[in-house]
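Q: I have 454 residues here and want to know how they pack in 3D. Can you give me a structure?
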Amino acid sequence: MDNDRILNERYRIQSELGKGSFGVTYLAKDINQPNQPQCVIKQLQLGTLVGLDKEEAKRRFEKEAETLNKLGHHSQIPQLWDSFTEDHQLYLVQEYINGKDLSKIITDGKGWSEGQVIGLLYDVLEILKFIQQQNPPIIHRDINPKNLIQRESDRRIVLIDFGAVKAIIDTSEDETELTLPFGTGDYRAEEQKNGKPCLQSDIYGLGKTALFALTGNPPRRLNYLQNGCVIWPEEIEVSNSLKQIIDKMVQRESSDRYATAAEALEELAPLHKIGETVDGYTLKAIWEGEEFSQTYLAYQNDSPDHPHIVKRIIHSTSEGTESATFFEAEEKVSSEEDRNSRKKLIKVVSKNQDVYLITKQVTISQAGRGKKDTKDKIKKNIPTFSHVQKPAIILLILGLLSFCSYIFIYKVAKIPDCFEHVPNVPAPKVLKQNWFNYGHSSTFVTIRDSIEKK
């Protein structure tokens, strides 16, 4: 489809986002709205499907659009804006999510920290819990990194591609044949390959996605036991608690997995503090985390207009660790301000033996990302110079350069009087002034009379 083409007298095509077996996805603008917001348009090419007449396809398309409209009320599922037909093609118009999918964020061999993966699991399990509670329950059928977008504004995970094509195909009579293509390779459970997806199929796909996030490698590169559990590489730093949760999610038999997303969330709960309130700050999402610390996005008074960063320092059973950490944090409250990242530590709170460092964050995009944060924290400890100190340092440097120039001119330019000790070698002539021409300019060079006969 050509760029700038207008669909339904309303949507101007900007570019093609992707192409699949049953349609094409475009980035477009709604030119009928005052601010012309961007949107995503999915063109469903139903003429390629076998066994469905146009009227039946249209009826099921409208039913699926109704389902997507209901799901779009969740903050982490794109809203359905519109649906229409044009030139015998069916179109869906959905909210555009500004962000990148996990396959583009997580590079080969460079996985996320444990805290980030816990945040990923929490976000997606909450979405699955929501769709599983619908009547009837909904199965996504294609949980994989490409369908999980990390939203730029708050780094929450958004689940995309509930596509009407899947619903149309999955409700056709020849269910076994037409459901086989759904799911993506490494992330497709055994029952999906047999054309019988269930609620646990989505949990399996999420478990495999978590493995990809931790290791930075596609699941096919890992080794597995006969029951489907991964043989964990030694270089992967992950707690036994998280290992057990992921192992249960990727069991070969669906009956051995968590029955629902709600059940998996209960198992995950001890590993995070999402949803808790600390001194008026509600923890909304994990941005990073290691064994003894986690960094959260938090809102003051539950308002998204006041984002903050809260670092949780997890209590250690070692004697004196908590008190020492709290003392160090208190010292930072009155003295530390990072001018580079515009973050300021404003208070320290102790709750349930954990210490929380609450930091004011001006813009969310300025916060550190992933494992690069370790380097950023090191940089924060490098001293910076004020506007008063900088001129003094510049003057000092200029003084040192002047001294070095003096030494060079009066020491190096003074040639040692060694010619009188060498027989039959005439002393060099003294060159007072000399002109050297270089193209269109002349340079006057004065050489000190550095040779004096004794």
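Q: Anything worth noting?
A: The first helix runs from residue 54 to 71. DSSP finds twelve helices and 18 strands in the chain.
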